[in-house]
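Entry type: protein chain
Record version: 2
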Amino acid sequence: MNPVRWGVLGAAAIATSRFIPAMKGATAASLVGIASRSAEKAKAVAQAFRIPRHFDSYEALIDDPGIDALYVPLPNHLHVEWSVKALEAGKHVLCEKPLCLSANDALALIAARNRSGRHIEEAFSYRNHPQWAKIAEVLAGGAIGAARAVQCTLAKQFLDPNDIRNNPDHGGGALYDLGSYTISACSAAFGRAPKRVIAAIDRDPAWKIDRLSTALLDYGDGHASFTVGTQSGPSAWATHQQFSVLGSNGWLRCDFPYAQGRPTACHVYVGDHTSHGTFETTTYSFEPVNQYTLQVERFSRYLRGEAVTSWPIEDSLLTLTIIEALFESARSGQWQDIPV
């Protein structure tokens, strides 16, 4: 089968440092176009990565009939506008996380998807790592019993005042950038929405973004908690990451569960009913893989009609509903119910 023809809508750092280089390893995808609002920048990126076509406007790329799917790495507040335009132009869309900034925006994207008949996903590259298939297998297989509690941490030093993650008007802050990962992981572990949530938030006094957010999610017969921070943890290339599940008859933990900026070997540790302390009874080891290559390969194969996993953006609707409730909880100091 012919490879899916891709275009990239914008020359953001995540595109040039992660997504575009990862395309080289994908057999079901071919990168044919790059667009930027700067003609010079589009041309420079095209030349650097040997991309056949470059465009000096997003509209020109969207309207190109020789492109089947678009990767949207634009600033968070522009995701909805350009994803809708791409869907309405007949393009499939892989949009960077967070997909959008409100539950209403997620509903608008669902409506655009349904009208257009095109496919759209939120670009959580971590989901494509084989460790998450193993985590799902362990949880479904009953090796640790039913999930009773989940704990997550994700943190890094984002101290550049020009970083979009430090702009509250453009969807900056810890919950949108890092919390979307941890909420997604909680949803993967429990497979349903929490009944209610509560949060504590510390804001940067100058930038006004949430720089440290801690949440408790109540699932009734189970709990999840997470902390995300944009001025905590390491200042190196990787974030500090933690994911663990307490089961009714065991436990599970990971050493590199979320975004891997560089392909890195990692492990899933499982303690069953026979384990002692924090010593695992089983270790699952994974060689380095490029999550971004796996993501574009899987997405492209899905578009070609192959039997591969895909994640509906209804998952993103739940994530945004929870994020909005956490902001309101921090403001009010009260639990917030999550509508089912």
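Comment: The first helix runs from residue 13 to 22.
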